[in-house]
From TrEMBL, chain A:
Protein name: Molybdopterin converting factor
Matching InterPro entries: Mopterin_synth/thiamin_S_b
Protein source organism: Allorhodopirellula heiligendammensis
Superkingdom field: Bacteria
C-alpha cells in the first residue's frame, strides 16, 4: 500500500511511501523517524490524532510534527 | 541550498518577508513566532512568514500543536517540501536583546534536533537579530549566520489588512495580570458556542485603527 508521509525529520518527507499491509502507526514512525518517542511528536492520520497501534490503510495521510514549540525572552 | 560559503553564512529576507515580520512584531504587545517560507531554489532566502495559532505573552510564545500539524498539511498541499517551510523557526523578543533563552535553546534542540539542518532566527523589539543554523548531519555543528534583506528580487507589495487578519486569527494573548481565570473559561461563561477570543477580540477598537 501507499501512504502520504509528512515529516520534518532528517531530510524531510512530503511524499508517498510504500508500506506493507497492516503497518501500524508505530511501525511507520520507527521506520522513518527512529525509536518510538511519541511524546516529542504530534502523530496524526488523515488529520486526526492517532494511536500507536492504529493500522494504516492504503491512501492514508500520516504526519509526524513537532510538539511544544515555544520560545521565551 | 546554495554552495558558496558566502551565501551559506547569510539568512536573507525578501523585503516582503521582512516587512511582514516587523509588522507582526509590532502590531501587538507580545512576542510572536512563526515559520519562514523559503525560496524553493534557495532555502536561505525567506520569502514569507507564516503564523500558526499561538498563545503569547510579553516574554513568551507557545505554538498550538494541532495548528503546527495543520500548517504542515496546508504547506504540503500547496506543493512545498518541509525544507521549504519547517526549517526556519522565527520569533521575536521584547526589548533589545535577541539572544536565545534557555527555553529557545531547548526548543531548538528538541523540535529541530532531528532534521538535517534548521535555523533559529530571533528579532528583538529594538531591531537586533540573532540567527543561528544547526547542522545535524555528520558530527553536527552550529554556525552563526548574518541576516540581510535583499532588494534584487521580485516581491509582492505589503498587505497590512491580510497580515492583521493572520495575526488576529492566530495570536491569543496571555496576560497574567488580566485575570487568574483563563481566557477560555471567561469566554465559556458568556458565549460558550463560539471560539475562544483572539487578540483582536480583547483589544480596543483603537488597535484596529493602528492595524490599518
Amino acid at each position: 500500500m501507499k501512504v502520504l508521509l509528512i515529516s520534518n525529520d532528517a531530510g524531510g518527507y512530503a511524499h508517498h511511501v510504500e508500506a506493507p499491509d497492516n503497518t501500524t502507526v508505530q511501525q511507520m514512525f520507527e521506520r522513518h523517524v527512529g525509536a518510538f518517542h511519541a511524546d516529542s511528536y504530534l502523530i496524526r492520520v488523515n488529520r486526526q490524532p492517532a494511536a500507536a497501534d492504529q493500522v494504516l490503510r492504503d491512501g492514508d495521510r500520516v504526519s509526524f510534527t513537532p510538539q511544544k514549540i515555544e520560545g521565551a525572552a | 541550498m546554495q554552495k558558496t560559503n558566502r551565501s551559506n553564512r547569510v539568512l536573507r529576507f525578501s523585503p516582503f518577508a521582512l516587512a511582514k515580520l516587523v509588522y507582526l512584531r509590532d502590531i501587538g504587545p507580545t512576542e510572536i513566532g512563526g515559520f519562514g517560507i523559503s525560496n524553493a531554489d534557495d532555502l536561505l532566502l525567506i520569502e514569507d512568514i507564516q503564523l500558526v495559532r499561538q498563545t503569547c505573552s510579553v516574554t513568551s510564545v507557545e505554538f498550538d500543536d494541532a495548528s503546527v500539524a495543520d500548517f504542515f498539511d496546508s504547506q504540503v498541499d500547496a506543493g512545498r517540501q518541509p525544507e521549504q517551510f519547517a526549517r526556519v523557526w522565527v520569533h521575536t523578543h521584547p526589548g533589545a536583546s535577541p539572544s536565545p533563552s534557555q527555553t529557545d535553546e531547548e526548543t531548538f534542540s528538541r523540535c529541530f534536533g532531528g532534521v538535517d539542518w534548521a535555523v533559529m532566527h530571533i528579532l528583538a523589539e529594538e531591531g537586533n537579530t540573532y540567527t543561528r543554523a544547526r547542522f545535524n548531519v555528520g558530527p553536527g555543528t552550529d554556525r552563526r549566520l548574518r541576516c540581510r534583506t535583499i532588494l534584487d528580487c521580485e516581491f509582492p507589495g505589503t498587505d497590512h489588512d491580510q497580515w492583521f487578519e493572520e495575526y488576529r486569527d492566530n495570536v491569543t494573548i496571555d496576560d497574567p495580570f488580566a485575570s487568574r481565570r483563563s481566557l477560555t473559561d471567561r469566554y465559556d461563561d458568556t458565549d460558550w458556542w463560539q471560539q475562544p477570543p483572539t487578540a483582536a477580540d480583547l483589544w480596543s477598537d483603537r488597535l484596529f485603527e493602528v492595524g490599518r
